[in-house]
């Protein structure tokens, strides 16, 4: 990987979500704090036992080069939360040439459930972005975590994007991986990398019913393929996929 570019002056923002189980079986949101470009909105849900839904709405263009954004999400014991976004997040170059940083920390306590399903992250041409996601999953908790990365907008070269995902289950390390994509990372577009594909992603499932066994399959378009593997003795599965565009990628991940 290339030398890390220091984060320069830019927007600093820190948003927080806490979901808790209410007495009537519903999930309440005692903490829903937006900050800067990270605007969080509760999406209405109905029916007893229905979890809360939170949607991230971009309040301004971000992340730009030099920005440092942070998002903390905690789902307390017995609560259920679905997290989504209103549109894709687009990483753009800043004026200084510095990298942007986006740090996400997720805690899913024992017996809680989180569906993390935001729209794709797009690395626009000239952008530099580091994404770090740390997840703590308690015993008996359920997690569906989807990450989709798109290399450049239509008709442009991609920016440089590094994404690291670290997951612990009941205090033990379950997954720790880092992906470097774009011009700043040697060999990223070769046969050992994305091999010409412009969209890559993964779907991690922890707890609940698991699709049995590992498998590999192909999707529509040249080079589109996906693979699913079991983690932690069947407690989790990880589906990794790459495709020519975001739509084909989403289909591959759903099949997984």
UniProtKB/TrEMBL annotation:
Localization, UniProt: Cytoplasm
Pfam families (alphabetical): UreD (PF01774)
InterPro entries reported for this sequence: UreD
Subcellular location, principal: cytoplasm
Keywords from the named record: Chaperone, Cytoplasm, Nickel insertion
Key word Magnesium present: no
Quaternary structure note: UreD, UreF and UreG form a complex that acts as a GTP-hydrolysis-dependent molecular chaperone, activating the urease apoprotein by helping to assemble the nickel containing metallocenter of UreC. The UreE protein probably delivers the nickel.
Family note: Belongs to the UreD family.
Function: Required for maturation of urease via the functional incorporation of the urease nickel metallocenter.
Record-given protein name: Urease accessory protein UreD
Organism: Streptomyces polyrhachis
Species lineage: Bacteria, Bacillati, Actinomycetota, Actinomycetes, Kitasatosporales
Gene this protein is translated from: ureD
């Amino acid at each position: 990987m290339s030398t890390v570019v220091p984060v320069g002056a830019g927007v600093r923002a820190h948003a927080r979500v806490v979901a808790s189980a209410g007495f009537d079986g519903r999930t309440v949101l005692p903490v829903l704090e937006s900050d800067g470009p990270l605007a969080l909105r509760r999406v209405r849900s109905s029916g007893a036992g229905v979890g809360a839904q939170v949607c991230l709405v971009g309040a301004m263009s971000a992340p730009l080069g030099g920005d440092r954004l942070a998002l903390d999400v905690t789902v307390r014991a017995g609560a259920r939360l679905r997290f989504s976004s209103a549109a894709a997040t687009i990483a753009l170059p800043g004026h200084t040439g510095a990298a942007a940083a986006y740090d996400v920390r997720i805690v899913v306590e024992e017996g809680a459930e989180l569906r993390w399903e935001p729209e794709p992250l797009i690395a626009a041409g000239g952008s530099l972005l580091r994404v770090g996601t740390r997840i703590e999953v308690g015993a008996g908790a359920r997690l569906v975590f989807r990450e989709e990365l798109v290399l450049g907008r239509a008709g442009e070269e991609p920016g440089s994007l590094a994404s690291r995902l670290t997951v612990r289950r009941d205090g033990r390390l379950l997954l720790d991986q880092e992906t470097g994509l774009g011009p700043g990372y040697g060999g990223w577009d070769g046969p050992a990398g994305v091999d010409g594909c412009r969209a890559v992603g993964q779907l991690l499932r922890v707890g609940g019913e698991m699709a049995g066994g590992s498998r590999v399959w192909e999707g529509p378009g040249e080079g589109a393929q996906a693979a699913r593997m079991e983690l932690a003795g069947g407690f989790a599965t990880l589906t990794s996929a790459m495709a020519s565009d975001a739509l084909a990628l989403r289909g591959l991940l759903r099949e997984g």
